[in-house]
Structure prediction request, 879 residues.
Amino acid sequence: MALTTRLTWLQEKRLQNHFGGKQFSLLYKASVHGFSAKNLFQKCCNQGPIIIVIYSENDVTGAYVQHSYQENREVPIILFVLQETEILEYKIGSHIPEILIYDRYLPLSDFNQKRLDFKNPSAGFCIYLRHKVVAMSSKVSEELGLPENCTASFQECEVFRCEDLLDKRKQEGVIKLRRILLSEMNTYDPNEEMVHQIRILLLGPIGAGKSSFINSVKSVFRGHVTCQSLVGSDPTGISTKYRTYSIKDGNDGRCLSFILCDSLGLSEKSGLCVEDIVYILKGHIPDRYQFNSMEPITSRHPNYIHSPSLKDRIHCVAFVFDASSVEQLSPEMVAKIKRIQKECLFDIGVVQMALLTHVDCLDLITAGDFPDIYSCVPVKLKLEAVHRKLGFVLSDILVVSNYVSEWELNPLKDFLILSALRKMSWAADDFLEDLEIFQ
Amino acid sequence: MAVTPRLTWLEEKSLRNLLGNASLSLLYKGSVHGYSIGDMFQRCSRQGTTMTMIYLQEETFGVLMLGHIPTIADGFEKPHISFCFSLQRKGTVIQIPTSFLNLLKVTSDCLEFSSSDGLIFSVYPEKNLLSLHHLLVKQLGLQSYSSSQFLEYEVFRVEGIKDDPDCIKMMMTATQHRRKLLADLRDYKPHADLVSNIRILLLGPVGSGKSSFFNSVKSVFHDHITHQAPVGSDNISITEQYRMYSVRNGKYGQYLPFTLCDSMGLDETDDVGLCLDDIPYILKGCVPDRYQFNPCNPITPKHPNFITSPSLKDRIHCVAYVLDINSVNNLSSKMAAKLKQIHEEVLNCGVAHVALFTKVNNCDEVLQNNLLNMTRKMTSQSQVMFINKMLGIPLSNILMVGNYASEQELNPVKDVLILSALRQMLRAADDFLEDLPDDS
Prediction:
């Protein structure tokens, strides 16, 4: 009995993106509400802009009515056909939307003789609901890349309200949620009896966005985008030193209760030594230590921390991957990551998560999707791929979009960044709680 | 002219989460489409399950109506299952108290919903008037008087949920039930205060979800997904140490009076997985926290941390056999033999025991809609009968959960299953304590 659209998620998303970042609410479905223009008008009049979708055997076609459909009012109309890889459209100008729907009964012989009676010839598109037939003029057929003088039977007609995906209501909700999250992280406090600040280590392939994530976090708390050149990177911006970054509250400059630790990127051959990771996790490596791909640190190094305390240790590890290329990791890189996971997991016990950057580069994903990002099909598929390939628990795979070229903050990005940080702080709490029992 | 809901996005999120990640589509808005019953029915009939939101001066009232709204606009009275609720803002959280109704009466100017035990409310759209039975006002935590003017009236279609009334009733009431279970478990005290802490041992094949169950229990008490016990995805046991996990009542809360003891997974091959000779020592309480298991050599009294004279508090009070519901019917004969052998030890020690099925996908089908008992469908499942026969575990002690593994947020129905399972384990442990000889 459930009323659902025939559009797949991807089809719906392509249409929504094509017409300017919309979301659709199904209002009318012919097979449920009756193949009747009266019923269609009843349900769809005064609902704001609408989109009419026709499903025939081979094609999905329709009309986008750009302004609120009200009786006897002319509005701009765009005809479209949804093809495999593109959406062709044809602007037919302003018309009364009723002309698109033919209500009067026609004898069957009129179709057989192809004597079509357009209410308005300049529209060139008419849906005969009763007969489940859609007719197009030669010009319309040509513009939409369909067979000439197309008179096609269809199986279904659906009408949706078109709303902005990121409407004012949702924007306000995100801003409020961002404020809550920001306050939560500003006042975040690990178990005070143990450490004052938790350390989150970022590991990942070179170019995955670790340093960019750190800058993004700094930006969120500072209140504007910072693109500080991180000391410890080479001229191309790649990190070569171990760095521990405290994050400051933008208002009073107080250091927050978490530190982000950046390291040399992972690489199949060079990059960070796996042995160095164990030393980092246990807290032996000092800030600004210059990594050497060939040799891990030794206890003879002048700045080696011989007796690290709990505050020097890593309390949560986040593997950072670029969402758009994580599935192309080489087998050698995957093996290296799995080796790190095993040693982290078995020997140190620290919680590990995956952080996917550049989520907005995934197919069809826009910033408007961020509030419900985990419900989007391409994101779900990506998370499942990471779970299968690298073994992370699905709920521990986080997605963000870092600040790269912007000057001002965007609450949508902040929302993802702060949500990820909160998850990491919860993971660190779990790690500390596990230790506490031991002591 | 945008037609947008008055319902805030955060309120919508709370409702969607309550209904198992449904989505809402606005169909009708009184201030746009006209405050008449005819106008509303015109747009909302035959749209499947709908949710009506009525916005009062300072509060929001709602009705979830299962199945199609009838098309007949003239007067009628017929059974129609509905749930009314209110949105209650508690700090940053929105709570949704709920009541069940089963009769709908429509006249030219009034919609009236009622239940067989006398609860009733009426909506007069053209007068912008909502009239509520005083008991409903109380049940839903409203501050309004029984009759209130409303500011707006909206109807949404609800997509992505089952139309089964029992299932919806469960979802709508799960939050309240969860709260009660949490309160009961927080107040729990072991039988006659014989011990201050109940120890529950999780035993089961590799990958059956033992560590995940602990993580899920902790998640419920902390109100967010947690991951203290490591969880893997390869087909080898991640857990190699004996771990005694305590759970705090929230991040800074007191420790709760139970401990979940996690062990190495069982493997059907000899000398792989948990050594069977370790089990009597675990049950008696001789094995210390964080003991590193060796599949080939059990612990011995000579081990430096061996607990030589365990008292009642060190013992295991309840054993939970943790099994993946999707593979229990395909247990190899060797694994079955191992489980039986373990079970003999458990019986010899007189320890209480339950079976815990994990990876249950259809959590909404496990419990009756009142959330108090397992459904007959569940108790007659082949997996349940299999374990009942193999180990002789009573049906009421064969429990089911869906651990948190892929979700980003908690789900009240899953929480109820997890808490119910934990409660059954504690009840079984109490039975064990009560049955102890007086000289223990």
